[in-house]
Amino acid sequence: MNIYADENMPLVREFFADLGEVTTFDGRNVQAEALREADVLLVRSVTPVNASLLSQNNRLRFVGTATIGTEHVDRDYLASRQISFSSAPGCNAQSVLEYVLSSLWFLAERYQWSLQHKVLGIVGVGSIGQRLATAARALGIPLLLCDPLRAAQEPDFPHTDFTTLCQQADIISFHTPLEKTGPYPSYHLLDAVHLAQLKPDCAIINASRGAVIDNQALLTAQQRKRRPLVLDVWEQEPDILLPLLPYCDLATAHIAGHSVEGKARGTEMLYQRCCELLQQQPRMSLAALLPVPAMEKLQLSANFGLPDVQNLARMLYDVRRDDALFRYHITGHGFDWLRKSYPARREYSALQLSGPALPAWLDSLGFSRQ
Ligand SMILES: NC(=O)C1=CN([C@@H]2O[C@H](COP(=O)(O)OP(=O)(O)OC[C@H]3O[C@@H](n4cnc5c(N)ncnc54)[C@H](O)[C@@H]3O)[C@@H](O)[C@H]2O)C=CC1
Ligand SMILES: O=C(O)C(=O)[C@H](O)COP(=O)(O)O
């Protein structure tokens, strides 16, 4: 069994070595010729998997993407060749939540906001958006939710249409997939028309897909009237619209989902799907492979409360680190280097909390107790 995997897939050899021979490749630049002998193909979001990439391969059985987003995979083509496919839904949802929370705390500090007096609009309330909604409720942040697909299926879903959300929210965070067609396309969802409808100081956070926001229209709007802006994802990565950078409060290289756990969970999920396909019992598990975190245990006193949570979270992840890396290295090393050399970052759950009266809302943020 020949297993071909993106070189940026952590623990891929540890998981897959018992299923076959593992060969790694550069996901951004891989060509059809290099994949001729693959039985299993494991990719990340940077590899378009389509008829052209698979034109020289006639033995492929399984394609897996260790990501939540799947717009880079031509699933109809895979189905036409009876090649099984799996993504890794939810694998890095907690990682994106921690990115957004860190961004919210940063913006609150920079602009001296009380988040409890800001309306957070969440666009796309799936794995990530729902986690964010749960965390925001725990932190007392008022919410507007926009998800027309959920609204169509769930009579009680408190849906606010996108235009109304644009008019009423103080902060908007995007968590939709990138869809160019269908009844609810998200391509350029935030366009010049909607940008003009936002409150003057409405903050924008995008950690979904770059093209959910019309980047050129965003630049024009920022040049006219600057708003708080956090961008993890950009149109046309890795060749992004660099003139946007001075207008960003936080700018990062599509790393919101790149926690150690988030990336490794993606590898594990594909391993499990592959074992199912091969009708083999999985022999490896993430719990056994994850490294011991630098900070393992922390005792909180009975005085720990909501105002302290930001300091606790910052011990584990502070988005300012990634913003600084981006601004320093983007012109020299470039977008993909920043992603490839991303420093280790553990999720909140890596730290076991103990104490006499741990508040229940810590669980809603993803912390774990001893
Ligand atoms: N920056 C990063 O590192 C990462 C980015 N992502 C991106 O975040 C997206 C969301 O991830 P998940 O929450 O796991 O996906 P999900 O599929 O669980 O949720 C997406 C939600 O968006 C809703 N939606 C679809 N079209 C919409 C529209 N036009 N307007 C409003 N809502 C719409 C869907 O109904 C669904 O509930 C992914 O598709 C991926 O593109 C995911 C992980 C990491
Ligand atoms: O899961 C997704 O979707 C993402 O966007 C990942 O966090 C980033 O994907 P990679 O480009 O690192 O594969």
Helices and strands, with pairings:
Elements: E1 2-6, H1 12-16, E2 21-25, E3 40-43, E4 62-65, H2 75-80, E5 84-86, H3 93-111, E6 120-123, H4 127-138, E7 143-146, H5 148-153, H6 162-168, E8 171-174, H7 192-195, E9 203-206, H8 215-224, E10 229-231, E11 250-251, H9 260-278, H10 286-289, E12 297-299, H11 309-316, H12 319-329, H13 335-340, E13 352-354, H14 361-365, E14 368-369
Parallel strand pairs: 1-2, 1-3, 3-4, 4-5, 6-7, 6-8, 8-9, 9-10, 10-11, 12-13, 13-14
Helix pairs in contact: 3-4
The structure holds 1,4-dihydronicotinamide adenine dinucleotide and the ligand O=C(O)C(=O)[C@H](O)COP(=O)(O)O.
Catalytic activity: 4-phospho-D-erythronate + NAD(+) = (R)-3-hydroxy-2-oxo-4-phosphooxybutanoate + NADH + H(+)
Domain D-isomer specific 2-hydroxyacid dehydrogenase catalytic: 12-281
Function: Catalyzes the oxidation of erythronate-4-phosphate to 3-hydroxy-2-oxo-4-phosphonooxybutanoate.
Key traits:
pyridoxine biosynthesis, cytoplasm, alpha/beta, Ribosomal Protein S8, Chain: A, domain 1, binds 1,4-dihydronicotinamide adenine dinucleotide, EC 1.1.1.290, binds ligand LXYGBJRG, Rossmann fold, D-isomer_DH_CS1, five-stranded parallel sheet, Erythronate-4-P_DHase_dimer, 3 domains
Structure description:
The chain is of the alpha/beta class and 370 residues long. It has three domains: 2-87, Rossmann fold; 93-251, 3-Layer(aba) Sandwich (Rossmann fold); 297-369, 2-Layer Sandwich (Ribosomal Protein S8, Chain: A, domain 1), CATH 3.30.1370. The protein contains 14 helices and 14 strands. The strands form three sheets. It has a six-stranded parallel β-sheet, sandwiched between helices. A five-stranded parallel β-sheet has the order 2-1-3-4-5. The protein has a three-stranded parallel β-sheet with strand order 12-13-14, with no helix packed on it. Helix 3 (93-111) crosses helix 4. The longest helix has 19 residues, at 93-111. It is globular and about 55 Å long. The chain starts with a strand and ends with a strand. The model has no long low-confidence stretch (mean pLDDT 97). 1,4-dihydronicotinamide adenine dinucleotide binds at residues 68-69, 90, 92-93, 96, 123-129, 146-150, 175-179, 184, 186, 189, 207-209, 232-233, 254, 256-257. It comes from Alishewanella agri BL06. Residues 12-281 form the D-isomer specific 2-hydroxyacid dehydrogenase catalytic domain. The active site is at residues 209, 237, 254. Substrate binds at residues 45, 67.
